[in-house]
């Protein structure tokens, strides 16, 4: 597991860790009893047939109830973790509209440009995009797809969410560590699915503001409103003029 790098990630990390601990305890106990029984009740003489037990009510009740209890405990912790991870504040510090399109990503820094414009970057299969995020600011991710189902995940945030055409899935997270991370599509979405990689850079607030300013120097990276995909993505300036951009499918 990558080290958790968002405020939501530790909850997931804990759920994952303790699920493994619980599974190991149950596993060791079960294997232990199996080996013990195999050894303790092994055939001791060639002619002797061991006692044939058909029913043991207390034991049967036990092995019905024990797994049900385990499922209840796992369910309880899963729901709790899910509630923590999916909690939405009313006033996130910034919104990033993410578009998963066959086969790359568009990142819109929604309404964060001058005069409420939206700086954005579009990746291609040949040229993977970079997502820059400010540390310690709450980001709301809104996920859009113009074509098929994708799945958005920044590895170190330890959670992914499906990107579904016709609906907008949302979650919030606050990056807690400055550094470089990786992201990709986690849903087999077509022939170049494996190219749906992106880089993530978590930087200080000041560096983030500087990055947005720099992005806006190129008019090709500024839109009046978030670029949400479909034909719009493929007809953005700089992408459809058949030049060095090259191999976008
Ligand atoms: Cu995809």
UniProtKB/TrEMBL annotation:
It comes from the Bacteria. Keywords: Copper, Electron transport, Membrane, Metal-binding, Respiratory chain, Translocase, Transmembrane, Transmembrane helix, Transport. Subunits I and II form the functional core of the enzyme complex. Electrons originating in cytochrome c are transferred via heme a and Cu(A) to the binuclear center formed by heme a3 and Cu(B). Belongs to the cytochrome c oxidase subunit 2 family. Residues 1-89 form the Cytochrome oxidase subunit II transmembrane region profile domain. Residues 240-249 have a biased composition (Acidic residues). It is a multi-pass membrane protein. It comes from Nocardioides daphniae. Residues 91-214 form the Cytochrome oxidase subunit II copper A binding domain. It holds the Pfam family COX2. Residues 224-249 are annotated as: Disordered. InterPro entries: CcO_II (IPR045187), CcO_II-like_C (IPR002429), Copper_CuA (IPR001505), Cupredoxin (IPR008972), Cyt_c_oxidase_su2 (IPR014222), Cyt_c_oxidase_su2_TM_dom (IPR011759), Cyt_c_oxidase_su2_TM_sf (IPR036257). Its EC number is 7.1.1.9. It catalyses: 4 Fe(II)-[cytochrome c] + O2 + 8 H(+)(in) = 4 Fe(III)-[cytochrome c] + 2 H2O + 4 H(+)(out). The chain crosses the membrane at residues 20-39, 60-79. This is cytochrome-c oxidase. It is found in: Membrane.
